Amino acid sequence: MPFYEVSMITRSLSKPDLVKALTRAGNTLLDHGAVIEKVESLGHRDLPYKRLAKQTNEPVYASNFFLFKAHMSREARQKTKSILTHDLDTVQVDLIQVDTMPSPKVECNLEEILKSPADRQAVRDLRENQKMGHFTRQMIYKRTEKEWKSIPKSYLIAPPRP
């Protein structure tokens, strides 16, 4: 079964009505053979443009955004989209197929991590390739210059004149 993201925009509803609308949408998905993996609330936001509520034709400027992540067949996708689109509490419903790529294999580098920082190759690379900014270079230069000036210098004594 393909993996779909079902984005649902509802009207601005009170919490009990919002819960009813979400359970209705979830039950619709489950009744048509979908396997819901995750439900996310994307919050209450302003819409990019004015929409109209289905039954009352009132303008809707802000609404709740939800995202269902589910596995379902293509036939179930068409049925659930038509049912959710005709629900009076929803403003917009989109079902987008997501390509699931196999995740790359993760190699264990615990032995490298357990070494002391001085022995790790990554730390050595950082030390060799580290970049210094202008301010850091200037501070190092001033410090070395100060140390150089603090060292007493011995001057050669000129030979006596003939």
UniProtKB/TrEMBL annotation:
Q: What SUPFAM superfamilies is this protein classified in? A: Ribosomal protein S6
Superkingdom of the source?
Eukaryota
**A GO cellular component annotation in the UniProt record:** cytoplasm
Stored Gene3D superfamilies: 3.30.70.60
Taking the record's annotation, the residue ranges forming a coiled coil are none
Record GO terms (molecular function): rRNA binding; structural constituent of ribosome
Q: Which GO terms describe its biological process?
A: translation
The similarity comment for this entry is:
Belongs to the bacterial ribosomal protein bS6 family.
Write down what this protein is called.
Small ribosomal subunit protein bS6m
